[in-house]
C-alpha cells in the first residue's frame, strides 16, 4: 500500500485526505471531473457522476486523462467498476450527434445500436419524424431542445452540431480606454473562455455552453467579449433591475455601443433594442392567467444572435421551457458555480450547454485577479434560556430561526464592527427583523427587497464612493452587485445549506482592491444547533474552491491574529 491521499470506492465516491502533502494537487485535479459532497476536517468526500464526467469530456478531458489522475493519487488499486463506468460515460458524450442535413435535423451515431435504443423509447419516439432516414433519426426542428432534454434523462448526452442562427448584424467593439480614462483589455482567461464558448478548436462544436468563474473575476466582461466577437443583436437575462443596470453601465463603459441601442425590459420598463436586458422575474410573470407567460414573446421579438444567461445556476425552471424552443440561438451561461439546489444541472447541460471553461478561485487569487480572502466561522453558544426553548421546539424552521437570530451574535457583531470601523463592511442576513434591529442599533443604512430600485442604486453608489462604509443587506444583494471596494462581509445568518448562496456572499468581497488589500469573510453560527449543521454544508463549496474555514469560539476570538491569515 502506497502512502497516497485518495481512496476510490466502487460506488463512485472518493475520500481525499486533507493533511496529505499531495492534497492540494489532488483537489485541483478532482475538481475537473468530480463534485465535492462533504468537507470535514480530515477526509473530504467526492462523487463522480455522469454529469460531472460529461462536463469533463466537453472540456476536452478523456477517460485516460481521468484514470491517470486517479491512479496518480489513489492509495489502492482502482475498482474495476469505477474504471468501467468512467470509460462508459465519457464514451457516451459525443456518441450521438445532432446535425443539420438540408432542412432536416438528424440524430446520427457511428454505432447503430445507440439509435435503435433511442428509436424504441416511446417518450422520445414522439419527438421524431415517423420514418427513419438512412443517415439517422429525423428530429422535428421545434423539438431540438426537448429531444436533448429527454435523451440526457436516460443517459444519452447529445453533442449538438446543428449550428446557429447568425441573428441580425450589429457592429460593436470594445474600447481601449473606459469612459473614466482607464486602460481596458480583455484578460487572458476571459479571452480563452470566449474562444472555448465559440468553438476555438472546432467551429461546429461551439456556440452554446457555460463559463464558470468566481465572483469578481469578470463574468460580465466575458459576456461583453462574446458580444463584440459575434456582433449581433443580443438578449441578456439577469436576476434583477440593479444587475441589469450594472450590465448597461459596463457595456457603455467598455464598448462603442450607444446608449439609445440598449433597452431595459423589466417591471419598470418595456424597451426592446439591439441590446436588450431582461430580468428573470418579468419573464416568469404570469398575471391572472397561471398558464401563460406573456413576456416569453420577447424571445421572438427580434432575430437575436446571442442570448446570455447571467447567474445561470439561478435560472428559473419556467425559463428552461422557452430555452428548449430556441436551440437555434447561441446561448452563453455565466455562473460562479454549477451547483443548483433544485437538482436541474442536467437541464443546464442539455439546454444551455456543457461547461466550456472554468478557472479555480485560488488560481485567480494567486495571479491577483481576485482578492485574497480569509474565511472565519465564529461559533456562539445560545443563551441558557434560549437553549431550553430550542431543545423543546419541534418545528425545524423555528429551531433554525432561533439559532439564526441568537441575540448573543449582536455582541460579536459589535466587536467586529469596532475592529473594522474603517473598512468597507457588508452585514448580510436572512431575516428582516434581525437586520432591521441591527441597522437601528448601530445607526446603519439597510437595503432589502422592499427598498425601491432608485434608493438601492443610491446606497450602492454611496458605499462604492466611501460616503458610507457599513451597509446592512438582505439576500437581495447576493447576486450581480458590483461593490469592488467591499473588503469585509459579516454573515449574521445564512440560508440553510445553500452552497450557491455562500459562493455569492463570499463573492461580494472578492473583487480586487485598489490598495491591493485582502478580504475577510465572517460567518456567525450558533454552536450545537441546526445552523452549525447547515453551515458545514455551505462550507463544502468554499472547500471545493480551495478555501478552508478558520473556526473560532466566540470567547477565543482574537481578531488581531486573523489579519495575517488567508484561507
Description:
This protein has 567 residues and is α/β, with parallel strands linked by helices. The chain has four domains: 6-92, no CATH class; 96-160, no CATH class; 188-359, Rossmann fold, CATH 3.40.50.300; 367-562, Rossmann fold (3-Layer(aba) Sandwich), CATH 3.40.50.300. Helices cover 36% and strands 18% of the residues. The strands form four sheets. The chain has a seven-stranded parallel beta sheet with strand order 11-12-10-13-14-9-15, with helices on both faces. It has a seven-stranded parallel beta sheet with strand order 18-19-17-20-21-16-22, with helices on both faces. A hairpin with a 2-residue loop joins strand 5 and strand 6 (104-108). The mean pLDDT is 86.
What is shown here, in short?
The protein folds into four domains: 6-92, no CATH class; 96-160, no CATH class; 188-359, Rossmann fold, CATH 3.40.50.300; 367-562, 3-Layer(aba) Sandwich (Rossmann fold), CATH 3.40.50.
Amino acid at each position: 500500500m502506497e502512502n497516497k491521499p485518495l481512496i476510490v470506492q466502487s460506488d463512485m465516491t472518493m475520500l481525499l485526505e486533507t493533511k496529505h502533502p499531495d492534497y492540494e494537487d489532488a483537489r485541483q485535479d478532482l475538481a475537473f471531473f468530480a463534485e465535492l459532497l462533504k468537507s470535514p476536517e480530515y477526509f473530504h468526500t467526492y462523487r463522480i457522476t455522469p454529469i460531472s464526467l460529461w462536463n469533463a469530456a466537453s472540456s476536452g478531458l478523456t477517460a485516460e486523462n481521468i484514470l491517470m489522475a486517479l491512479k496518480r493519487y489513489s492509495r489502492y488499486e482502482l475498482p474495476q467498476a469505477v474504471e468501467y463506468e468512467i470509460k462508459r460515460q465519457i464514451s457516451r458524450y459525443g456518441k450521438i450527434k445532432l446535425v443539420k442535413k438540408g432542412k432536416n435535423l438528424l440524430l446520427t451515431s457511428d454505432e447503430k445500436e445507440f439509435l435503435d435504443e433511442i428509436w424504441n423509447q416511446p417518450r422520445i419516439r414522439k419527438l421524431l419524424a415517423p420514418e427513419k432516414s438512412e443517415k439517422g433519426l429525423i428530429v422535428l426542428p421545434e423539438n431540438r431542445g426537448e429531444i436533448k432534454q429527454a435523451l440526457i434523462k436516460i443517459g444519452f448526452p447529445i453533442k449538438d452540431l446543428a449550428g446557429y442562427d447568425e441573428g441580425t448584424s450589429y457592429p460593436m467593439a470594445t474600447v481601449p480606454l473606459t469612459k473614466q480614462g482607464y486602460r481596458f483589455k480583455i484578460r487572458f482567461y476571459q479571452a480563452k473562455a470566449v474562444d472555448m464558448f465559440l468553438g476555438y478548436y472546432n467551429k461546429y462544436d461551439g456556440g452554446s455552453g457555460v463559463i464558470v468563474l468566481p465572483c469578481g473575476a469578470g463574468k460580465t466582461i466575458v459576456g461583453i467579449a462574446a458580444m463584440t466577437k459575434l456582433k449581433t443583436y443580443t438578449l441578456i437575462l439577469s436576476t434583477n433591475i440593479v444587475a441589469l443596470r450594472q450590465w448597461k453601465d459596463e457595456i457603455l463603459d467598455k464598448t462603442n455601443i450607444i446608449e439609445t441601442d440598449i433597452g431595459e425590459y423589466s417591471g419598470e420598463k418595456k424597451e426592446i433594442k439591439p441590446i436588450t436586458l431582461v430580468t428573470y422575474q418579468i419573464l416568469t410573470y404570469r398575471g391572472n392567467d397561471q398558464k401563460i407567460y406573456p413576456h416569453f414573446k420577447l424571445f421572438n421579438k427580434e432575430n437575436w444572435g446571442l442570448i446570455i444567461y447571467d447567474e445561470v445556476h439561478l435560472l428559473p425552471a419556467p425559463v428552461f421551457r422557452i430555452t428548449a424552443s430556441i436551440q437555434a440561438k447561441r446561448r452563453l451561461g455565466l455562473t460562479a458555480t454549477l451547483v443548483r439546489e433544485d437538482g436541474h444541472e442536467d437541464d443546464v447541460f442539455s439546454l444551455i450547454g456543457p461547461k466550456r471553461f472554468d478557472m479555480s478561485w485560488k488560481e485567480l487569487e494567486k495571479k491577483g485577479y481576485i482578492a485574497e480572502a480569509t474565511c472565519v466561522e465564529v461559533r456562539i453558544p445560545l443563551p441558557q434560556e434560549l437553549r431550553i426553548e430550542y431543545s423543546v421546539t419541534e418545528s425545524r424552521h423555528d429551531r433554525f430561526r432561533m439559532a439564526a437570530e441568537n441575540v448573543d451574535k449582536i455582541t460579536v457583531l459589535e466587536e467586529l464592527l469596532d475592529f473594522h470601523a474603517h473598512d468597507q463592511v457588508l452585514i448580510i442576513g436572512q431575516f428582516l427583523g434581525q437586520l432591521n434591529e441591527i441597522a437601528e442599533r448601530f445607526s446603519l443604512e439597510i437595503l432589502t427587497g422592499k427598498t425601491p430600485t432608485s434608493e438601492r442604486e443610491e446606497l450602492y453608489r454611496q458605499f462604492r464612493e466611501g460616503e458610507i462604509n457599513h451597509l446592512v443587506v438582505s439576500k437581495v444583494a447576493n447576486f450581480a452587485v458590483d461593490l469592488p471596494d467591499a473588503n469585509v462581509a459579516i454573515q449574521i445568518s445564512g440560508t440553510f445549506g445553500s452552497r450557491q448562496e455562500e459562493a455569492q456572499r463570499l463573492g461580494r468581497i472578492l473583487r480586487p482592491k485598489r490598495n491591493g488589500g485582502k478580504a475577510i469573510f465572517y460567518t456567525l453560527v450558533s454552536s450545537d444547533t441546526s445552523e452549525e449543521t447547515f453551515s458545514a454544508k455551505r462550507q463544502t463549496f468554499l472547500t471545493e474552491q480551495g478555501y478552508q474555514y478558520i473556526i473560532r469560539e466566540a470567547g477565543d476570538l482574537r481578531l488581531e491574529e486573523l489579519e495575517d491569515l488567508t484561507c
